[in-house]
Amino acid sequence: MKMKKLLFFMFALLGMGSMMMTVQSCDDGETYAEMKEKERDAINRFIKDNNVVGPISVISESQFYAQDSITDVSKNQFVAFGEDGIYMQIVRKGEGSSVVELSKEEPDSTVRMRLLCRFMEYDIDAADTTYTNFFSSAIVDKMQCTYERRGRSYSASFTEGYMRQYHGEVVPSGWLKPLDFIRLSKDDSKIAKVRLIIPHSSGTANASQYVLPYYYEITFQMGR
Fold first, then answer.
1. From residue 124, how far is each of 29, 34, 50, 121, 160 by CA, in Å?
2. pTM of structure
3. Where are the domains of the chain?
4. Residues of the chain below pLDDT 70
5. Number of H helices, E strands in the chain
């Protein structure tokens, strides 16, 4: 009889433990919609105030195009793209050729470019810089990029650098967004620089998995 009571007590404890684990799991779990809402809140807080670039003045796409696709850095303007939720500031448009101009020089309207990038990646949710190669002259991130003029589409892969090491070969679509608006040069003194707020849907695999927004500063230079 004592053995039966002992077994009953043990099973009861196991059942309570299983119930507690189930409740805990439900409490900790978040739906995708909830995670996206938290991401939007984090981006909005960053826009209002941050310790990286300061309070941001958001302009519409129509205003951006009316300004000849320029953002006023003195006003800390970022253009908000409605289609993908990306925010962009063009710090320096760069000198040289645009991607569209380069495509006109190619017989099949396909441009294959080797781009050199220096960048800083900042986790908006954690309020912390994750990776940067700005402070090392010997390290530069490299990517192979292809532009198809007919479909106005880009594809690219990292071939060297921190982004490849920590995020893999696939270049986030958010990184390719500025290529429609900047000019590319091999000259160190004429390279383009942009600032971006990239939501998870246009970010790295890690950002996509955990629904996290990131802020980037990136320079683009044509490879020699």
1. 21, 17, 9, 9, 25
2. 0.86
3. 1-30, 32-222
4. 1-28
5. 7, 9
